[in-house]
Specification:
single chain; 128 residues; alpha+beta; Nuclear Transport Factor 2, Chain: A; 6-stranded mixed sheet
């Protein structure tokens, strides 16, 4: 059975790349065929990592209320609530995120890659 903390740690690596403005670290967590579904449309791996070309996009974040669903052997869905502040803003935002992680089958150590992510905004800004 998949471990919730393992996948939260993986997800935090993606968020930390957003905080650091590190497109290489972000891209390293995503499968080549990654698909993101966001309020402004679809995103591929290059789009997701490309958003960091100008530097960090997130100033701080917190993940909570996480749930894990094993979809198939080597495939899990992590769902959670994220609170975050974008760079240059003081406004705390919240959204629900669903991320599908797939175990890489390369014969080496176990490596998980994010293959799909969808964000759903939580009704509007949260007062700080």
């Amino acid at each position: 059975m998949a471990d919730l903390e393992t996948f939260l740690a993986l997800e935090r690596r993606v968020w930390e790349a957003l905080v650091a403005g590190d497109p290489a670290a972000d891209g390293a967590m995503l499968e080549d065929g990654f698909l993101g579904v966001y309020s402004d449309g679809f995103a591929a791996k290059a789009d997701h990592a490309g958003q960091l070309a100008g530097g960090p996009t997130v100033a701080r974040y917190e993940l909570g209320d996480a749930r894990l669903l094993e979809l198939a052997p080597g495939v899990v869905l992590l769902a959670y609530r994220a609170e975050f502040v974008r760079v240059g803003s003081q406004e705390l935002e919240a959204m629900y995120v669903s991320s599908v992680w797939r175990r890489a089958e390369d014969g080496g150590p176990v490596v998980w890659r994010n293959v799909f992510s969808q964000d759903t905004a939580e009704g509007g800004p949260v007062p700080v």
